[in-house]
């Protein structure tokens, strides 16, 4: 560890003992091996910071270090060294509650992983809400050992090697006195616990992979990209703890006829120019089923009819709903029989068939604009 102790803790050379404690506490909290199992970089950082703290928190050692660097600490022949018993760094440290009381109460809770699934919904389900069932492969508490990983659910014993501390403290005699180093217990990987006979069905993991059928309610008005969180329906962590969540990502199925625009539904209705001219009644699909729509005589192409409340409810549940907008399109025949053609030719120059747009009427685009605004 070639790094300078002050740099190691990120403090000035003039830092007070309090500042040093604070800096160390921060690093230790972040890089403690219990919090980063198997992370070598974190472990190294934790060890280096502990070493730095050990020196800088002790006025004698700190002044040696300031004067002579690390060589001063090793002694190199000097006999006037501080010989006192080094205080137990952890027990007398300001964060005794964090490191102290080794064993069970020191444990951070285990968190299980969140699971994510995508769920496609059609417009009907979005508009009316739906009860959905999904099959999810997830870890749940092992039924044989009731989640503790011990055969038959028997009580778990303290690790014999570390006596439940989760770490091994080694003492080294130095000229400065007894130096303590701490390493994560290899026997229990820092858990402080030891399972005598691992549960046969989960191999001591305390959890089993199952295919779970989960039923839940989709609220009305959801849209693509929204996420629903089902608490505790994710994975149970090994040997118990706090379950992860199941996160449902909402996706929308495209409808062939009905297009969603916010909470409104847009639909294009094609009618013949005869129906548009004479007026008629048409059947129109909505997400709530078919409705009959009156087309008044003389309906122009591009007219927008509003079916109030046939849109999608707002997701906040205050009961407000969008509308369905019906865009009327006049169908122009692509082919004609001889008789049809003759009939139309006879009407061609009839005065009522000659366009006479009224200037006072709103233009097509203005009408569409007013629908989306109003
Ligand atoms: Zn088990
Ligand atoms: Zn152990």
TrEMBL record:
Keywords attached to this entry: Chaperone, Cytoplasm, DNA replication, Metal-binding, Repeat, Stress response, Zinc, Zinc-finger
Cofactor(s) in the UniProt record: Zn(2+)
Cofactor remark from the record: Binds 2 Zn(2+) ions per monomer.
UniProt-annotated binding residues for Zn(2+) 2: 159, 162, 185, 188
J domain location: 4-69
SUPFAM superfamilies, sorted: Chaperone J-domain, DnaJ/Hsp40 cysteine-rich domain, HSP40/DnaJ peptide-binding domain
Cited NCBIfam families: DnaJ_bact (TIGR02349), PRK10767.1 (NF008035)
Function: Participates actively in the response to hyperosmotic and heat shock by preventing the aggregation of stress-denatured proteins and by disaggregating proteins, also in an autonomous, DnaK-independent fashion. Unfolded proteins bind initially to DnaJ; upon interaction with the DnaJ-bound protein, DnaK hydrolyzes its bound ATP, resulting in the formation of a stable complex. GrpE releases ADP from DnaK; ATP binding to DnaK triggers the release of the substrate protein, thus completing the reaction cycle.
Record text about domains: The J domain is necessary and sufficient to stimulate DnaK ATPase activity. Zinc center 1 plays an important role in the autonomous, DnaK-independent chaperone activity of DnaJ. Zinc center 2 is essential for interaction with DnaK and for DnaJ activity.
Full protein name: Chaperone protein DnaJ
Gene from which the chain derives: dnaJ
């Amino acid at each position: 560890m070639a790094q300078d102790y002050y740099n190691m803790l990120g403090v000035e050379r003039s830092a007070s003992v309090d500042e040093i404690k604070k800096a160390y506490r921060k690093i230790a909290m972040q890089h403690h091996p219990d919090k980063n199992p198997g992370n070598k970089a974190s472990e190294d950082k934790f060890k280096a910071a502990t070493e730095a703290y050990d020196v800088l928190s002790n006025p004698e050692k700190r002044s040696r270090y300031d004067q002579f660097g690390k060589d001063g600490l090793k002694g190199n022949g000097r006999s006037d060294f501080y010989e006192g018993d080094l205080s137990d760094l952890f027990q007398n440290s300001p964060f005794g509650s964090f490191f102290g009381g080794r064993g069970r109460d020191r444990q951070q809770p285990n968190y299980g992983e969140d699971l994510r699934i995508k769920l496609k919904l059609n417009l009907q389900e979005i508009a009316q809400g739906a009860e959905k069932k999904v099959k999810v492969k997830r870890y749940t508490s092992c039924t044989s050992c009731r989640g503790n990983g011990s055969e038959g659910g028997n009580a778990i014993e303290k690790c014999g090697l570390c006596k439940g501390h989760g770490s091994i403290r080694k003492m080294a005699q130095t000229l400065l006195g007894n130096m303590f180093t701490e390493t994560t217990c290899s026997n229990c990987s820092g858990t402080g616990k030891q399972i005598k006979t691992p549960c046969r069905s989960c191999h001591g993991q305390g959890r089993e992979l199952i295919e779970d059928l989960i039923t839940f309610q989709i609220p009305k008005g959801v849209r693509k990209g929204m996420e629903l969180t089902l608490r505790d329906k994710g994975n149970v962590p090994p040997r118990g703890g706090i379950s992860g969540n199941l996160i449902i990502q909402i996706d929308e199925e495209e409808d062939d006829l009905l297009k969603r625009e916010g909470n409104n539904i847009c639909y294009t209705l094609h009618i013949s120019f005869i129906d548009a001219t004479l007026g008629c009644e048409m059947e129109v699909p909505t997400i709530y089923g078919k409705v009959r729509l009156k087309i008044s005589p003389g309906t122009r192409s591009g007219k927008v009819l509003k079916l109030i409340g046939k849109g999608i409810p707002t997701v906040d549940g205050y009961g407000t709903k969008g509308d369905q907008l019906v865009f009327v399109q006049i169908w122009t025949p692509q082919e004609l029989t001889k008789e049809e053609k003759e009939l139309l030719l006879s009407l061609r120059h009839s005065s009522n068939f000659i366009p006479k747009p009224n200037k006072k009427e709103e233009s097509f685009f203005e009408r569409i604009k007013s629908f989306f605004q109003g």
